[in-house]
């Protein structure tokens, strides 16, 4: 509602003009204050303004509490649905664990997250199997080794529960490192499998600096501290020692694959060379157990079981906003930061 003081004055004068005029006694004329009407109008205006502000404030409080109640109800229902997802299931359960992306710290596949997912899955007393959907080009050998060890430990503690890996586009390098821990590995005929090797790349630009007349100044404590500096030539000692590190890491990878695949693996000159194979080629040398998809395995191996997905929750607020698609959730995200 908008108003001006002139409009209120005009309305008040019109009301006074239409009102029946009463004769004013001479004594009353003498005592009449000429500013009395103005002060009365001002008091009335201020009073109405205060009433209007109070009314608007009450509505704001009402809408805020209503919106807060709606948000809490949505959040409560969402978290309750997530918590009770498994409680309402009956019969056997198959844990579905997607592993898609690069492996490493703060990457799509991080060892601590995957280990927690495995622990959650095995807490279900109706668990009959675990299917890992693998699609990774590799990454950190450390995180790959931790996940490998976690899967092997679960298989030893629960030998009756098979762990199956289904390769989508690829399970290369660290991705296959993890997959080799599974009871069985399946892939598509065109999937890329293998790349059992270790790489460390860089470049030597020391001659370039010399040609353009730039002198490199590097101060170190320890003769091999800057052995990977691209603007300094690598010494024979540093090259041999760094190669020894890569060879040892590669051997750890090889041992893990041999332990995981066992007699199913046919060792050739290419198996541990870092070469990548198609699904069909990988099946012939025992890197995988067969050609299949997730749906085919669920229908053939676990027809009566219910798949339950165990996924890493990156950001609950953003998932909530995406699921409900409401404007209020977008406003909350723009002003709220969850560490």
TrEMBL record:
Bilayer-crossing regions: 61-80
InterPro entries, alphabetically?
Answer: ClpP/crotonase-like_dom_sf, Pept_S49_SppA, Peptidase_S49, S49_SppA_C
One Pfam family assigned to this protein is: Peptidase_S49
Q: Which GO terms describe its biological process?
A: proteolysis
Coiled-coil stretches, from where to where?
none
Q: Does the keyword Membrane apply?
A: yes
Q: Which residues form the Peptidase S49 domain?
A: 160-299
Q: Which GO terms describe its molecular function?
A: serine-type peptidase activity
Classify the source by domain of life.
Bacteria
Q: Does the keyword Transmembrane helix apply?
A: yes
Matching entries from CDD domains are given as: S49_Sppa_N_C (cd07023)
Q: Where is this region: Disordered?
A: 1-30
**What's in the keyword line of the UniProt record?**
Hydrolase, Membrane, Protease, Serine protease, Transmembrane, Transmembrane helix
Question: PANTHER family this protein is in?
Answer: PEPTIDASE S49, PROTEINASE
The family annotation for this protein states:
Belongs to the peptidase S49 family.
* Name of the protein described by the UniProt record: S49 family peptidase
